[in-house]
Amino acid sequence: MGTPLFDLTGKVAIVTGGNGGIGLGMARGLADAGAAIAVVGRNEQKSVAAVAELKQRGGTAVAIATDVTDSKAVADMVARVKAELGRIDILVNNAGINIRKPPHELDIGEWDSVIATNLTSAFLCSQAVHPAMKEAGGGKIINIGSMMSIFGASFTPAYAASKGGIVQFTRSCACAWAADNIQINAILPGWIDTDLTRRGRSEITGLHERVLARTPAARWGDIDDLSGIAVFLASPASDFITGTAIPVDGGYSIMG
Question: Which domains does the chain have, with CATH numbers?
Answer without folding.
Answer: 12-194+222-246 (3.40.50.720)
